[in-house]
Design a protein that fits this description.
Layout (H helix, E strand, L loop, with lengths): L2 H19 L16 H12 L6 E5 L5 H12 L6 E5 L30 H10 L7 E5 L2 H11 L3 E6 L4 H11 L3 E9 L6 H13 L31 E4 L3
Bound molecules: S-adenosylmethionine (SAM).
């Protein structure tokens, strides 16, 4: 490995440690005490795999911003001209809209104040390590309102990361953004096997739009990225993903 490449990977490891130490991403999970996170390392692998695919990075559901910060750090360190779209209500999850999304009945995420992080706080998290510039675009509001507008201003997406937990968030992200994902681009669904409402939205969407790419099974320790398993003993802690082929 060239010295240059070594420096870059060390830089990304430092950022991951910073994110976990400061609890800036749910992805740190049980690994955070190690100052590391397999899921953040996997995100870096996905960023590497899609760096030459046309389009930008989009995350729907950013919380404190850690995963979007990692994407921005990767682009800045590697001098890649991609934007980071960070979409969130910045006021937590919505109450279930049971008439529109019956599967969300009973969801209680809206009751958790810890999931409500203001845009100012997320901006400050980026600013703290010099990641805030004109390439970071905050998309503020409920997904069903903001994502139809975002899709009009977006050209292509190279890496799409869904992390909104509920059917509402997952469905709105998919119907508005999936067709913007470039061929060869990657979609990551954080909550696929841990939140059945999220999984149902993914399965409904795939069935309706006849999407047949294999979902990499989050419970299968196939270790695609060669990074070992998480401290939960699962390969990915519930994260599913696939590469868009058509
Ligand atoms: C689990 S957190 C995201 C964690 C983050 N991606 C990370 O890596 O740490 C879920 C986020 O989704 C947002 N969210 C969920 N449903 C939403 C909706 N319908 N519209 C806008 N934001 C939503 C919440 O505000 C919250 O910040």
């Amino acid at each position: 490995m060239s010295e240059n490449k070594e420096n870059k990977s060390t830089d990304m490891e430092k950022i991951i440690k910073y994110i976990c130490f400061n609890k800036l991403s749910c992805l740190c999970g049980a690994d955070e005490h190690l100052g590391s996170s397999i899921n953040l390392q996997r995100l870096v692998k996905c960023l590497e795999l899609t760096k030459d695919i046309p389009g930008d990075f989009v995350e729907t559901g950013v919380w404190r911003g850690g995963a979007s910060m990692l994407a921005q750090a990767f682009f800045m360190k590697n001098k890649i001209n991609k934007k980071v779209y960070a979409a969130d209500s910045f006021e937590g999850l919505p109450r279930p809209q049971v008439e529109k999304y019956p599967v969300d009945a009973g969801d209680i995420h809206f009751k958790f104040p810890s999931l409500s992080v203001s845009r100012e706080e997320v901006e400050e998290n980026f600013r703290q390590i010099n990641l805030l510039n004109e390439n970071v675009i905050f998309v503020e509001g409920w997904f069903e309102d903001t994502l139809p507008i975002l899709r009009e201003s977006l050209d292509k997406i190279s890496l799409l990361r869904l992390d909104g937990d509920m059917y509402d968030a997952t469905w709105n992200s998919l119907v508005n953004l999936y067709d913007k994902l470039s061929i060869g681009g990657i979609i990551i669904i954080d909550d696929y096997s841990t939140h059945f409402r999220c999984k149902k939205a993914v399965l409904d969407f795939r069935e309706k739009y006849e999407i047949t790419e294999e979902i990499k099974d989050p419970e299968e320790p196939d270790d695609y990225f060669g990074l070992g398993s998480t401290s939960t003993g699962r390969s990915s802690g519930g994260v599913a993903w696939w590469i868009k082929e058509k």
